[in-house]
């Protein structure tokens, strides 16, 4: 800590960013723009931002890094949507096929994430995309139920395309 | 376009009845809960469609609240079945 | 006019995925595979139908609310399914394998 004021200004920045996000959410959900509703929103958002700003932006990470991760995630969303669509068409084909060509099984694999947000986002994306559902997450060990076992084993243990994409999105930077 | 909303509402109600089979006959608690969760997600869309048919925007707010309640209820049931108590 | 046609296509695709999700819930052999149908097809079907409603509505406050609803569903629906599957796995429900009798 070379600069004594560094920590404090970062806390103020966190609170300010939380306040802006909460106020935008309030204005969208309320829909009224008269004096009473806007003032009530400002008061509520200020109280909530003061109490719980460290839930949205982590204290041990600069705000700018969080925002950059978020922007990288937004850029990744179209590719994620495309793979969700492909995975859904695959599942729909297997459901509607008269003989139901499914071969389910449990796959276990390890990842290299260091961050809780990255783990959560990866688990959610795993449930949505390639024929798998996240069953259990224990540290970096993922237990996954796959609809087509051999196909998913090849995808998760050998190719690791999605894991690398998420590691790139949530990489640590100082 | 209004008839499209009515038709999609009718089809959604039909799919809800299909899921209701799993709620009534499904073996075990898990099958029933996941069928109830699916019915909830279909009901959200049904509420939005009703809002468009009747031209009342308030139904959108109701469906947002319903989505939140559906999510929290499923989480609470899963936690209760796993640990035996909700804390 | 073109926007309405795109909205119509989106709503019909969403309805297709919703119906497939319901059929999968009936047809698939055990709980874990049914969770696939419920978690994937329903989430995408909902997203497509709400996208169709947004395209029909145009740029108003209602469509912003529907966008918030889409984001919330894409975060919450996989989480709910994961919680249920995790609970079944912790209680020792055995996954169905190929060749067994359906449950």
Question: Overview of this structure, please?
Answer:
Chain A is mainly α. Chain A is 66% helix and 11% strand. Chain A folds into two domains: 6-60, no CATH class; 69-169, no CATH class. Chain A contains six helices and three strands. A three-stranded antiparallel β-sheet of chain A has the order 1-3-2, with helices on one face. In chain A, β2 and β3 (141-146) form a beta hairpin. In chain A, α1 (6-30) crosses α2 (35-56). Chain B has 87 residues and is mainly alpha-helical. Chain B is built from three helices and no strands. Chain B is flat and about 45 Å long. With 103 residues, chain C is an all-alpha fold. Chain C is elongated, with a radius of gyration of 17 Å. At the A-C interface, α1, α3, α4 and β2 of A face α1, α2 and α3 of C.
Q: Rough shape of chain A? A: elongated
Output the radius of gyration of chain B. Answer: 15 Å
User: First CA to last CA of chain B: what distance?
Assistant: 47 Å
Low-confidence stretches of chain B: none
Globally, the shape of chain B reads flat
**Number of domains in the coordinates of chain A?**
2
Radius of gyration of chain A from CA coordinates: 21 Å
Report the uncertain regions of chain A.
Answer: 1-6
Distance between the termini of chain A: 14 Å
Number of strands of chain B: 0
